[in-house]
Specification:
Helices cover 34% and strands 14% of the residues. The protein is of the alpha/beta class. A 7-stranded parallel β-sheet has the order 8-7-6-9-10-11-12, with helices on both faces. Strands 2-1-3-4-5 form a 5-stranded parallel β-sheet, covered by helices on one side. β4, α3 and β5 form a beta-alpha-beta unit.
Length: 332
């Protein structure tokens, strides 16, 4: 059986790395820049597998349509799987596989980059110097050494972020229902979430999006944070209640905000919108604050990560073709 893959939400870099990894395997790709949803699902006709990304819709209706078209495998080019109705996939006997370890270093290092950019106002300094303004007024930062950093989620990415912040000489607090082995031995203190929110100067989110973590950062949790706290989110946008965060910015409770993800990013991120008017009033309000830095879901975007994503994806497609056990299967 030859594997025909309908790949959605693809960009030239996705195609380059996936084609390179699949060379000699006989996999046939059908590339689509459009996101997968109920209206684009018919594009998968004739394919027996789909390949999807973070903003593709793999809800019940879409999975039903894909199954009726003959799709028997869903491969994700990401670690998260909140966009998939796993119960429906399980009922249809359509396995869902992901890439859980493409590069924890990439995302953790990007989160650290946001911390440094916000602290030392690097985004302001860069623009000023290019305009011939060499004044230091308004660029005052603080030493990371000795600051308390809260890490929510200590999976592979959160663990790596914690290790880097330990290297800066920070006191690191963490919260996770299943604490990562070995971090406590290195000086990380696992504490209740309320204590982490209340004691941290910097909070970085590295947990998956589940019903329990949706809007983990809301008006109530923000009210418990230190005045002037720095909040960084490189995980999933819906971990944060954006209107509540905007209120926190206006009150000064949140002193710095770094986002690589946004709850309503599907119609914005990964596209060039420079020639259009952005209709999302909440997002445009965010961009008016001088202490906010937003990047467009690029934390994963390194050569190492793209190679790992392509390699894992192709490996699963080959296993699927041969009837062999799949790797990194997500269960309901």
């Amino acid at each position: 059986m030859a594997v025909i893959v309908a790949a959605f939400s693809t960009k030239p870099y996705d195609r380059e790395y996936l084609e390179r990894a699949a060379a000699g395997t006989g996999i046939t790709w059908r590339w689509f820049e459009s996101r997968l949803d109920a209206t684009t699902a018919p594009l998968a006709a004739g394919a027996n597998a789909v390949n999807c990304f973070v903003n593709d819709d793999l809800g019940a209706a879409v999975l039903e349509r894909l199954h009726a078209l003959g799709v028997r495998l869903v491969t994700l080019r990401c670690a998260g799987f909140n966009q998939v109705d796993l119960r429906t996939a399980d009922r249809l006997s359509v396995p869902v596989v992901r890439v859980p370890e493409y590069s924890p270093h990439a995302v953790a290092e990007h989160a650290v980059g946001l911390v440094l950019m916000l602290d030392r106002k690097l985004y302001k300094a860069y623009n000023r110097v290019r305009e011939g303004n060499f004044s230091l007024d308004g660029l005052l930062g603080f030493d990371l050494h000795g600051r308390t950093v809260g890490v929510v989620g200590t999976g592979r990415i959160g663990r790596r972020f914690a290790e880097i912040m330990l290297g800066f000489g920070c006191r690191v607090l963490a919260h996770d229902p299943t604490p990562a082995a070995g971090l406590a031995d290195r000086g990380v203190a696992f504490v209740p979430l309320a204590d982490l929110f209340g004691e941290s100067d910097i909070i970085s989110l590295h947990c998956p999006l589940t019903p329990a973590t949706r809007h983990l950062v809301d008006a109530s949790s923000i009210s418990r944070m230190k005045p002037g706290v720095m909040l960084v989110n490189t995980s999933r946008g819906a971990l944060v209640d954006t209107p509540a965060v905007i209120a926190g910015l206006k009150s000064g409770r949140i002193g710095h905000l770094g986002l690589d993800v946004y709850e309503e990013e599907a119609d914005l991120f990964f596209e060039d919108k420079s020639g259009t008017i952005i209709g999302d009033d909440v997002f445009t309000r965010l961009l008016t604050f001088p202490n906010v830095v937003v990047t467009a879901h690029q934390a994963f975007f390194t050569r190492n990560a793209l190679e790992a994503i392509a390699s894992q994806t192709v490996r699963n497609l080959v296993h699927f073709d041969r009837g062999e056990p799949l790797e990194a299967v997500v269960g309901a």
